Amino acid sequence: MGASSAASHRWRFFRSGGFDQVQIETADDLRHLAELDQKLWAVLACPTAGLEFDEKTLQLLDGDDDGQIRVHELLAAVQWVCGVLRDPNLLFEPGDALPLAALDAATPEGQDLVTAAHDVLARVGRPGDTKLVLADLADPARLFPPDQLNGDGIVPAALSPDPAVQALMAYVLATVGTQTDRSGQAGVSAETLAAFLAVADEVRQWQARACDETAQIMAFGDGTAAALSAFDAVQPKVDDYFTRCRLAAFDDRATAALNPSDSHYTEIAGLPLSDTRQEVAALPLAKVVPGGSLPLVDGINPAWQTAMAALRAAVVLPVLGDQSQLTLEQWQGLSQKLTAYRGWLAAKPATPAADIPAEQWDTLLAPDTVAALQRLIEQDAQSDTDATLVDALEKLLHLRRDLVTLLRNFVSLSDFYSGNARAVFQAGTLYIDQRSCDLCLRVTDMERHAELAPLSGAYLVYCQGVRQGEAPITLVAAMTGGDADEMMVPGRNGVFYDRLGRDWNASVIKVVEAPISVRQAFWSPYKRVARMIGEQVQRFGAARDKDIEAKSAARVADPGATTATSAGAQQQAFDIAKFAGIFAAIGLALGALGTALAAVITGFLGLPAWQMPLVLLGILLLISGPSMLLAWLKLRQRNLGPLLDANGWAVNIRARINIPFGASLTGVAALPAGSKRSIQDPYAEKSSPWPWLILLVLLLAGVFWIWRQGWLG
Predict the structure, then answer these.
(1) 514-537 per-residue burial string, b: 16 or more CB within 10 A, e: under 16
(2) Residue 464 belongs to what H/E stretch?
(3) CB under 8 Å to 363, separation ≥6 — which residues?
(4) Which residues does 132 contact at the CB level (< 8 Å), separation at least 6?
């Protein structure tokens, strides 16, 4: 649009969060959105995951599939929707219903969508209906029957009546993997078929080696595989036997040690022996003799007789004939005959197709069968179908329902600041410590979020959410009301309610401290002093208790030394000169303190009555003022931006969370209006008058002493 068109549109802005935000309210706002300066947009990019928003809509908007929605993608969607609808004001109405009359049939694309919509309604059994909803597109099998071409280039088995083609497709799906047809069924594409043919060629070349080199590889003919299995089953035990015999031949003194001893037989004699006992199988394969041959029939360890019989039948008889013994040289020769077969097996392609018998390939990959499947794939890819238009209808229905909502969380943050609806980044509500926190965000990367989020200036509580049957989630909640005196890390528990109303067990795992309110800042100096005094009293009490315990232990351990120490202490106590100086110093200090206190009291009492409250107020401000001022300044700087940026957003403005708005984001426990409350607590601690009486006596004594000194005139 030209400059005159841009100037003719009057934008409306509202101020919230410390900045001016554009209002998206009419179809004209949508039509002219591309003219709005991007510097006025609240957000320039947002992620497609981790939002309380329909993920399908976000995927449809993400044209480059990079996981981010950017300005140009959003503008393209707005322009397309305004081009196919007669009146884009439909987008501002709740729901996903699309009246067919709302489509602009005056344009070619609009007319095509009208035709496709009528076709969809006919397929779902509502041929005379005048509106379309997202539920009509929920079942792909109804829209795209698997036995009909749909234009996606993926062919399910139901599309071909030829058993040979179906058999080939089954092997392709089992070997290469599946792709999903628009009907929702697994199918074969040109890519997967080509991949299978390449695998088949590799497997057939490998299998051909066994035919070309039969004498070397298939040394035992069709029984080579059985021969290798029988050989490998006993190879470690036979090698052990021949090694023992060679050691015995090397030194005949080793013969007795290499055979089981009498004591070993005595140990196992009391066991319930059988061929399957480990104690029997661990014995040598046969009796060890220097340079001996391996018996094949008699004199074999009972645990190995069956395996040795299989070796004799599958390996020895085909090569050496019927013989009852096997020499070391013969054993090594049999192993050599299996070497080529072992190498051939090691080169077996790592694919399920390698298990297809060689004689089956010619039938499976018959030229007519492969050509028929290729033609079917080409026909499906080139078929004249309305599948693309159905996809466009699905996108239009999603945008009809969700586009304005996304704009109100992207171009502006009106959903967040209006209070009428929750923003797409608000995950739910956290209830903890007698408050509810509405500003809760999902956290996908805890480390990255913890680096950026503190820049928001908000008091943040990170929680781990757990719910039975669901994957754990990590949340961050901004506390903008109440105080945080009772917040404990880790382990403080609460309950999180997501946007679907489901409850999660929430456990605090991290806290980022920051001011919450000015009221909390007012009391914080006094709380710190009280906490410091309490800690010092506890330390003093613990130290005194430890000292008394140590002295008591010393008295029990050495009564004589304790008596001597006590006597020395009593003797030292009579040093009058030393203690006179101490008492004099204490008296001087008390006198100085009394004089200063009297001067303060005299000055305060000498003020006019109307000035006394001002003095007290000044003292309070002197103590609490710096803390309140600092908190007020920090609260004015609270910013939503870093919380979103840490989750992958590109926030374009300083979305402040001022004190009034922050108070609306966190609810603090309060009794309902009109409630009646009984102040009588049967378990309340009984108050004693003695502390007040003692305080009153001390005050009267101080006033009397000041009067006696003549300081009151």
Answers:
(1) bbbbeebbbebbeeeeeeeeeeee
(2) strand 459-466
(3) 164
(4) 97, 98, 100, 117, 120, 121, 393, 397
- Is residue 644 within 8 A of residue 456, CB to CB? The reply is no
Do residues 413 and 42 lie in contact, with contact meaning Cβ atoms separated by under 8 Å? yes
- The token duo for 583 is 């008492």
Strands 493-498, 666-668: pairing kind:
unpaired
Taking only Cα atoms into account, the Rg of the chain, rounded to an integer number of angstroms, comes to 45
Amino acid letter at 564? A
> pLDDT tens, 161-194?
999 999 999 999 999 988 888 888 899 999 999 9
Contacts of 22 (CB under 8 A, 6+ apart): 11, 12, 13, 29, 36, 40, 411, 412
Which residue is associated with the tokens 């909803």?
133
More reliable by pLDDT, 93 or 596 = 93
Residues 6+ apart with CB under 8 A from 304: 234, 237, 281, 285
Better pLDDT: 576 or 327: 327
The DSSP-derived string for 470-534 is S--EEEEEEE-SS--TT--TTT-EEEEEETTS-EEEEEEEEEE-----HHHHHHHHHHHHHHHHH
Nearest by Cα to 181 from 151, 212, 213: 151
pLDDT value, residue 204? 92
What are the backbone angles phi and psi of residue 289, rounded to the nearest 5°?
-130, 150
Helix, strand or coil, per DSSP, at residue 74: helix
In the numeric block, which tokens belong to residue 520? 């909390």
Tens of pLDDT, residue by residue over 273-288, are 888 888 888 999 999 9
Element (H, E) at 436: strand 435-437
pLDDT at 689 over 50: yes
How crowded is the C-beta side of 477, counted as CA atoms within 13 Å? Answer: 31
Rounded Cα gap, residues 39 and 20, in angstroms: 11
User: Residue 621's pLDDT band (boundaries 50, 70, 90)?
Assistant: low
Q: Hey, is 188 helix, strand or coil?
A: strand
Cβ proximity of 692 and 79 under 8 Å: no
* Domain range summary for the chain, segments of one domain joined by +: 3-117+386-416, 155-213+355-382, 220-337, 425-516+637-667
Please tell me the total number of residues recorded for the chain in this structure.
713
DSSP codes, 331-351: HHHHHHHTHHHHHHHHT--SS
Residue 393: CB atoms within 10 Å: 26
Q: Is 619's pLDDT higher than 70?
A: no
Rounded Cα distance, 244 and 253, in Å = 12
Checking 618-621 for CB contacts under 8 A at 24+ apart, the result is: none
CA-nearest of 539, 435, 429, 526 to 486 is: 435
Whose tokens are 């309950």? That residue is: 495
> What's at 344, amino acid-wise?
W
- 559 against 314, higher pLDDT: 314
Q: What angle do CA 110, 111, 114 make, to 5 degrees?
A: 90
The highest-confidence range among 43-47, 444-448, 557-561, 585-589, by mean pLDDT, is: 43-47
Q: Are 73 and 34 in contact (CB under 8 A)?
A: no
Predicted local confidence at residue 637, as pLDDT: 73
Give 347-385 pLDDT, tens digit per residue.
999 999 999 998 999 999 999 999 999 999 998 888 766
d(CA 699, CA 697): 5
Residue 134: predicted pLDDT: 93
Contact predicate 78/30, CB 8 Å:
yes
Closest alpha carbon to 43 in 456, 455, 425: 425
- CA–CA separation, 133 vs 235, rounded Å? 71
